[in-house]
Amino acid sequence: MKVPEPGKLGEGEGQSRVVPRRRSKTTAERAASGSRQVAPAQGGVGALMAAMVRGEVPPPPVAQLVGFRPVATGEGYAVLEFEAQPRHHNPMGTVHGGILCDVADAAMGFAYATTLKDGETFTTVELKINFLRPVRAGLLVATARVVKGGRNLGLVECDVADEDGSLVARASSTCMTLREGTGRGQ
To answer: Most exposed: 16, 54, 135, 169, by fewest CB within 10 Å?
Structure first.
């Protein structure tokens, strides 16, 4: 019997089941292990993302507006941290879904950007998110990875977890690669 990937549906004796994902390391665990990985020495957008993680260039303005920061990136993945505060609340007293969506979208964008070549940029063409538990305050970690990259389109997913490692949201995104001469008024 083939073992399905974590988080995918598997089948066992005619029954479908969900195979649990492995818990990702917390930010503290990553820091303790010294793994502040950055993208390979490439040019373009991927190099810019790595420079942001290292603190050599400032993150995009939306990072300051929302309050997230990139903490790790590598080929096809990225990790962002976000401190949820009352200023992010909706009228019900929980973090607004749009804020969680912004954080997940940014993490997925960072991850996808690490796969681009010189002269390429990208845009998000589709975004989906499931909110799994309410959040009021505390550190959230958004971990994104490129699931499938193609010449023009890529599928990216992101898990947003609280400081205990509990999953609070899962997002997926389709990104379109733009090359020089595309995406500028065409």
So the answer is: 16
